Write a sequence for this structure.
């Protein structure tokens, strides 16, 4: 059986009309054993926008997000059904090369998790594994991604220091730089600032706002002010269902569903 290669689709010139959507799910369900954790989510993610996924703890935000680049493949007894469409391909198909797909749909986790390696090696690790050997290309990649992650000025004089020696906020921006070094289309972030102090949080938020010129961003956050500050669209998850999806300002000012209203006004969660 022939494997689909996302690399083939990657070089296709972008037709803005065709690619207005960066990603779309259709009737996406996620099961852990017999437990259905996501009950058929059909969401559309617009290109070069930030979409926030909000909702109480346990409502399925992380489960949904992880399915978008098949991180649930790694979770014991997890099963995903339905479609996840990326450039016309269903990434949930058995034929997809998962490692190749993750170059296009990257992820940043809740806790900063730099490798116990230098800053330089953190960023070049994956590109090298994918065969990039040219020192000049790698140097440029390090500089560009650190600049985009708003970390370059702080670390440029010592790229050989360990990523673990950085502050929490810097580590998280290093993880963002590491993710964007692969030039993904889409960046998935699961509560990327929840382990950070307010100053680092605001630096990460500024970084994400600057990145959306080049990337489509989907971010889980339990921080509603954060969703309101940075996102264009918001989806409210309630008990495994994405019950409301709209422009962020509408979700926060005129939600259509009572449960959303209760949540954003602080009545539960
Ligand atoms: N690895 C797992 N195994 C079994 N159940 C899980 C696992 N991860 C999450 N769940 C369950 O799925 C539901 C959604 O969890 P989660 O996606 O982590 O929610 P959120 O990110 O919104 O807090 C919860 O009922 C949770 O207990
Ligand atoms: Mg979560």
């Amino acid at each position: 059986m022939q494997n689909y290669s996302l690399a083939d689709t990657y070089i296709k010139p972008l037709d803005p009309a065709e690619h207005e959507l960066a990603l779309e799910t259709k009737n996406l369900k996620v099961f852990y054993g017999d437990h259905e954790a996501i009950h058929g989510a059909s969401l559309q993610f617009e290109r070069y926008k930030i979409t926030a996924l909000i909702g109480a703890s346990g409502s399925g935000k992380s489960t949904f997000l992880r399915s978008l680049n098949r991180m649930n493949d790694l979770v014991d007894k997890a099963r995903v059904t339905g479609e996840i469409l990326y450039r016309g391909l269903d990434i949930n198909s058995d034929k997809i090369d998962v490692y190749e797909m993750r170059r296009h749909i990257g992820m940043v986790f809740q806790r900063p998790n730099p490798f116990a390696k230098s800053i330089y090696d953190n960023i070049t690790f994956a590109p090298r594994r994918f065969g990039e050997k040219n020192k000049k290309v790698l140097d440029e990649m390090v500089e560009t991604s650190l600049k985009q992650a708003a970390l370059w000025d702080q670390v440029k004089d010592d790229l050989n220091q360990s990523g673990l020696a950085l502050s929490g906020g810097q580590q998280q921006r290093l993880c963002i730089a590491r993710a964007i070094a692969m030039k993904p289309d889409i960046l998935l972030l699961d509560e990327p600032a929840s382990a950070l102090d307010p100053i680092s949080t605001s630096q990460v938020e500024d970084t994400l706002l600057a990145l959306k010129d080049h990337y489509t961003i989907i971010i889980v956050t339990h921080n509603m002010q954060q969703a309101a500050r940075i996102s264009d669209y918001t989806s409210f998850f309630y008990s495994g269902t994405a019950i409301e999806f709209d422009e962020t300002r509408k979700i926060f000012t005129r939600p259509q569903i009572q449960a959303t209203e209760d949540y954003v006004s602080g009545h539960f969660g």
